[in-house]
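User: What would this chain look like folded?
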Amino acid sequence: MSKIRKTSDISAEAHESDSAKDPGKSARQRIVEAAQVLLASSPPQMIVNRDIAEAAGTRQSLIYYYFTSQEELFKEAMTQLTDAYIEQRRRTVDRSEPFPKLPISDHELWWKAAANFSADSGQSYTRLRWGYPVVNFELNEILCHHPELDPMEVKAHILKEICFNFGWVRYRDTVAVGLDIDADELRAIENRLYDLD
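Assistant: Here's the prediction, encoded as structure tokens.
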């Protein structure tokens, strides 16, 4: 007969796990960071909780102690990565340049995780009810510092930067959704990018 575990037992496990692995980081944060690393190497649907727990150096039961679902964990992992990436862009990008680059080297972990989330035409983003904070941040920053620019030109720049980093065909639809670009606008952008006019 299996024993039903009390919340106090799981809480004690969490405390024990916190102090055993890294006294400076909580088990919750180690789980989030493990999820980030795994998301940067695999699509979300390929990740199982056992792998997350193993990478975090903790027990699988703690994932559901801290998060109601794997989706909630992934959303927290992506939120933390995104917040860090946006903060880095705020500190380091020269906004006098109208079309700043979006290099992968700026925040490789975010780029890889975002690419894995985007590989299914945005279905993973939709399941998480996740917006597109980086693309919209970049759009707003460029237009704020350069209001004279055509918004479609700015969207084309962002779309090109993101999609050319990882592959146009694979990511264009997801990024187009994030930038609120309809089919006609997408065709116009592609014509501009490929000089097909």
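Confidence is low (pLDDT under 50) at residues 1-20. If you want, I can go into more detail on any region.
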